[in-house]
Amino acid sequence: MNSTLGAKGVVELELVSSGEKWGRGPAKDVHSSLEAQVDSPSWHLIQALNTLVEKDGPHAGCGGIFSSEPKPLSEAQKQMVLTYAATVPEDVMKKELGVQRWVHDLSWQDSLLRLYSQPTINIEGLVGGYTGARAERRCSRTGRSPRSTCASCPT
Questions:
Q1: Continuous H helices in the chain
Q2: Residue 1 pLDDT class (50, 70, 90 cuts)
Q3: How far apart are CA 8 and CA 65, in angstroms?
Q4: Residue range 87-126, pLDDT digits in tens
Q5: Can you give the pLDDT at residue 126?
Q6: Left (φ > 0), alpha (ψ -120 to 50) or beta: where does 65 sit?
Q7: Alpha carbon distance 83, 142 (integer Å)
Q8: Which of 14, 32, 45, 155 could form a disulfide with 6 if both were Cys (CB 3.0 to 4.6 A apart)?
Q9: CB-based contacts of 132: which residues, under 8 Å, 6+ apart?
Q10: Chain Cα centroid distance, residue 141
Q11: How far is CA 26 from the centre of its chain?
């Protein structure tokens, strides 16, 4: 019997929070001091992005992006991961990735089990406010996450 660990697919999307389209925030860029008076699309984008994660990582369904809970690894798959962990030096991987600790201070083995069994969601860019050549205090009419990457649940 062959056993595989499957693959995580990739979905890239751009999320835009627009005051103009929403009808509550500014329809044009305004001075940042007006945030006390005018809704900020950037803050609403941050609140939306926050619904995709919990303190310990992504929601199992990543805010409804994934349709179901990830399937637990089979014993054969767990053994594959543990065999890999025993053959690849942890310190080499930490150096290659530029990290000192694994997420949540997990052990090398547990971090790999988590990697192969859990969905992931990440933000590859976040833009809000004025991004021109010189600093200005503007509350932008939009906030955007130009490259949010959603990797699907492992199969």
A1: 19-22, 41-50, 75-87, 90-97, 108-117
A2: very low
A3: 14
A4: 999 999 999 999 999 988 999 999 999 988 887 777 777 7
A5: 79
A6: alpha
A7: 48
A8: 155
A9: none
A10: 24
A11: 27
73 CB-near residues (< 8 Å, 6+ apart)? 5, 81, 113, 116, 117
Q: Which residues of 112-139 are buried (b: 16+ CB within 10 A; e: fewer)?
A: bbbbbbebbbeeeebbbbeeeeeeeebb
Among 17-31, 46-60, 90-104, 136-150, name the one with the lowest average pLDDT. Answer: 136-150
Residues comprising the chain, all counted: 155
Residue 142 pLDDT: 64
Distance CA 125, CA 27 (A): 23
